[in-house]
Input
Amino acid sequence: MALFTAALAHYCSTHLGVVNDEELAVLGVTPTRRRALVESEILVPVHRGVYRLRSTPITLEGRSRAACVASPDVVITGRAAGKLWGLRRMGHVDMIEARAPYLSHTFADERILLRRCPPLPAADVVLRDDGIRVVSPPRLAFDLAADLSDIDFESVVEQILDRRYCTMATLLDTGRRLFHPSRPGSYRFDCVIAARPAWLKPVDSHHELVLYDALRRAGVAGMTRQHRLELPGGWPIHADIAIPALRWAIPIDHVTSHGGRVDAQRDKQNDRQARMIRWQVDRVTDGDIDELLDQTIGELPAIYHVLAPTLRPASPARSVRLGAG
Output
């Protein structure tokens, strides 16, 4: 009998190349054949009773699944969970953070940080089709509040809302349920969620949040996000940041993903169409935000005060001449 069957190959292909003893038994792999698979190095031991198909690359997803099938109570959280949900601002993740009940059976792995806690409610756990247990987006947001900077945490919250992983009401409920003065991240979570209006549209990108926050701190008022404009040509656009009272739009061009002649032509046409309905459009790029933010936040507030001459600057120190570097 062949050591590696079609059923085992198919299972490995849909479960990140990771299996445990119980799954092998269900697939008809006897203990004797399992030992032969390990001795022939087709299966590589990862944890006690957990194996990786040697031909499968070692990935964050595979390591997360291995942790979950090694212990039925382990749930992935932190930056690793953020990566699994496809969230931004997670950075490079090598250490996997996981939660497990106080008395549950676990394992030793120097690249897995196990945090003991009471059993998580079912609403806080999502079981993926590949067998990875990961915290739900609202619980993940609470857990990440202890690990991220203020601006990165706000960015993650905006992305969770933008993707409709949950609502503001759910985030508020999660905060009320989990807040404790001694629990890390509680105050940051509470401050960010409580200060965010439920009606405010989520930002589309981290650059949008950085620019919006910088303009707000510079004294620019009346801003909205993803403001819809119906153009004379018969199609709508959504300005990343806009001040409707001034008929002023600030789109953000992502030069790494929004470039090329066709995109540039369409943007120019949209700008002309906006001008036809008396909207001023001042574009910035992601490079303006990443590399020239101070200069950009010198120019845009100056334009703001030109468009709204009756408004006084929030602070004399922030009143900058147009074009000042």
Residues 261-276 form the longest helix (16 residues). Residues 313-325 have pLDDT under 50 and may be disordered. Residues 6-58 form one domain. The radius of gyration is 25 Å.
